[in-house]
Design brief:
Blueprint (H helix, E strand, L loop, with lengths): L2 H9 L6 H13 L4 H14 L3 H12 L15 E5 L7 H11 L4 E5 L9 H5 L11 H11 L1 E5 L6 H12 L6 H14 L4 E8 L8 H17 L3 E8 L7 E2 L1 H12 L5 H17 L6 H14 L1 H12 L4 H5 L9 E6 L4 E6 L1 H11 L15 E4 L6 E2 L4 E7 L5 H9 L2 E4 L9 E6 L3
Parallel strand pairs: 1-4, 2-3, 4-5
Antiparallel strand pairs: 5-13, 6-9, 7-11, 8-10, 8-12, 9-11
Length: about 425
């Protein structure tokens, strides 16, 4: 078999066999298929698409390109969680310990932020000493000991995805549905959990900018994951405005810890309880979703979830005094309150504009390898539906220096639109998508 034959078949709109896909993916990992050939194949897939059968085989081949974690007797309670990313999306920081406190085993591999979507690993690295580079053996030891882990993708788990994603990022082939689906699911399958809960974001601050696109992606993930012998459910959630109050790495750690103490924004709490409930149900620890969500609420309000979070920070080398005393988190030297320019109501708050402004401040990356400033960000005091009066606080900027102030103020204030009448507040949760439904 030759790489050029596989590339040609896909370029001309043909359907690849399972053997061709597996050979090509293994060749990408071994080096038998050159990077320029893999790049040509990715563009062919981007332009021609893939059938459902091809996407299933691609997902399996990528998952099996390295190790698959063997969770042994823990597998029956193991559930992974994935979000497609958004502005202020600190959900995993809360959902994972809530689910683990209820008895779910959560082996979670997370990523870093690129563009306006923040990365869970970047947020956790706001805590001094926290390790995100655990080995396969360390992952297994930790979940056996405390039931949860949030770490980066290891070199031995779905290595094909690591190679292909790096090429997709520089060849304008990121937004291809079969490539997105296989990338997400191959990592989840390699993580060993038989059940997966997905949070698919829709809106101006998400990869999928409208609900229809998000539902299409969610349906594809559920269908392909089911065909790969995983139990998969997806919830579509709104990302037109930032989630919660804080955007920025250390600021989002602070908000997550406050939520784990039972406090925090209503929209964040609603998504947390929904997804944690789905994980508890998928693990077989509740008979229905209302019971599962009640358990999630109990774990959050009792402090049990915070103790799980604290145990994870300690297990991965983090300084637990930081989560016990949030004033020890990295703090920006300048905090500037920006006030409302008019009376009325907040009609919209463009999450995409906010995300781009935060990247410019250094809270995110324009390209891989950029340095993150964990201190900077913004905390919102008024979001969609809130009444405002001239001079009332809209948001607080957290800045590294005064040179950032004018641009950040202009950009984030420009994300707001105001109205004289109360607007309709969009629901935070959209469709629940399951296999066969």
């Amino acid at each position: 078999m030759q790489a050029v034959e596989v590339i040609t078949r896909k370029r001309d709109g043909g359907e690849l066999t399972a053997e061709e896909i597996r050979w090509f993916i293994q060749g990408c990992v071994s080096g038998e298929v050159a990077d320029y050939q893999a790049a040509a194949w990715l563009m062919a897939v981007y332009l021609q698409g893939m059938s459902q059968g091809e996407t299933v085989e691609l997902t399996r081949a990528m998952a099996e390109s390295g190790n698959i974690l063997d969770l042994g007797d823990l597998a029956s309670r193991a559930v992974d969680k994935h979000s497609t990313g958004g502005v202020g999306d600190k959900i995993s920081l809360v959902v994972v310990p809530v689910a683990a406190a209820a008895g779910v085993i959560v082996p979670k591999m997370s990523g870093r932020g690129l563009g306006m979507s923040g990365g869970t690993l970047d947020k956790l690295e706001s805590i001094p000493g926290f390790r995100v580079d655990l080995s396969d053996a360390e992952i297994l030891e930790q979940i056996r000991r405390i039931g949860l882990v949030i770490t980066g993708q290891t070199p031995s788990l779905a290595p094909a995805d690591g190679k292909l994603y790096a090429l997709r990022d520089v060849t304008a082939t990121v937004d291809s549905l079969p490539l997105i689906v296989s990338s997400i699911l191959s990592k989840k399958i390699a993580g060993g959990a038989p059940a997966i809960v997905l949070d698919v974001k829709a809106g101006r601050g998400a990869f999928m900018t409208n609900e229809g696109e998000a539902e299409q992606l969610a349906r594809a993930l559920v269908d392909i994951g089911t065909r790969c012998d995983r139990r998969v459910i997806a919830r579509v959630s709104n990302m037109d405005q930032p989630l919660g109050q804080a955007v920025g790495n250390a600021l989002e750690i602070r908000e997550a810890v406050e939520m784990l103490h039972g406090n925090g924004a209503a929209d964040l709490r609603e998504v947390v309880l929904s997804l944690a409930g789905e994980m508890i149900l998928a693990a077989g620890l509740a008979v229905d979703l209302p019971e599962a969500q009640a358990k999630a609420r109990q774990m959050l309000e009792s402090g049990a979830a915070f103790q799980k979070f604290r145990a994870m920070i300690a297990a991965q080398g983090g300084d637990v005094t930081v989560v016990d005393d949030l004033s020890r988190l990295p703090t920006a030297p300048i905090q500037e309150i920006v006030t409302a320019p008019m009376d009325g109501y907040v009609a919209s708050l463009d999450a995409g504009t906010v995300g781009r402004a935060l990247v410019a401040l250094g809270a995110g990356r324009r390209k891989k390898g950029d340095t993150i400033d964990h201190r900077v960000g913004v905390v919102f005091h008024r979001k969609i539906g809130a009444s405002v009066h001239v001079g009332e606080a809209l948001f607080t900027l957290h800045l590294a220096d005064r040179q950032q102030e004018a641009d950040a103020r202009y950009e984030i204030l420009g994300a707001y639109r105001f109205s004289e009448q109360p607007p309709l507040v969009p629901p935070i949760l959209g469709r629940r998508i399951t296999a066969g439904a």
